[in-house]
Amino acid sequence: MPHTVAALYQFVSLPDAAALQAPLQALCESLGITGTLLLAGEGINGTVAGSAEAIDAFLAELRSGPLLGGRLDNLECKLSTAEAPPFRRLKVKLKPEIVTFDGGRTDPTRGAGETVAPEDWNALLARPNLLLVDTRNAFEVALGTFEGAVDPGTRTFSEFRAFADGLDPAEQKEVALFCTGGIRCEKAGAYLKERGFAHVHLLKGGILKYLETVPEAESRWRGDCFVFDERVALGHGLEERPGHTPEETR
């Protein structure tokens, strides 16, 4: 039976992140869920897998159950499937940030840019003088990216700040950002907004939502999309792509 995989995140104030660690661990264990969840004062991030029923129950608890008290009512989540178990164990970790960038100084909840639905993304890319930037790391970009996208050449996401500092808000009137699921775009977009970029666009739901939503015949995506689990790469329709190994992409 296929395993349901949920890639999820939300930037939201969680001052009680440490107190949530043990209950979330127990919840996942009771449902037979494996994968990784990251908790920080700025929110939650992770990818987990289990039966369809288990993932449904887990997401329902996050979004509307008493454990989080309704704070994850805007949880971004992409669902896909895996034929083999994509994770070997469960990890629920406390971190300074849910995606490592600058120690938490950049706050996406203050404004990260305008989100663009996947079905509207192609029209945005057709605009003249648009700077399209892939916010992922170089080994991910090498596996696949959008036509015309700039590769910042980063080894880690925190290096994106140096790339962004080299851009001039006066010259780049419109910037479009994308990443795997949306989380890095929000941090990068917030950083650009703080630096004075007036028009920043973010692909809502990231590459995964685009591949799920946009028909392959209309797609501007080329290649496969790296994912951080045993499947390694996904293609259009979020189908597993054979032939890739973790070692080849790092």
From TrEMBL:
It catalyses: uridine(34) in tRNA + AH2 + O2 = 5-hydroxyuridine(34) in tRNA + A + H2O. GO terms for molecular function: oxidoreductase activity, acting on paired donors, with incorporation or reduction of molecular oxygen. Keywords: Oxidoreductase, tRNA processing. InterPro entries: Rhodanese-like_dom (IPR001763), Rhodanese-like_dom_sf (IPR036873), TrhO (IPR020936), TRHO_N (IPR040503). SMART domains: RHOD. Gene3D superfamilies: 3.30.70.100, Rhodanese-like domain (3.40.250.10). The keyword Oxidoreductase applies. This is tRNA uridine(34) hydroxylase. It comes from Methylobacterium gnaphalii.
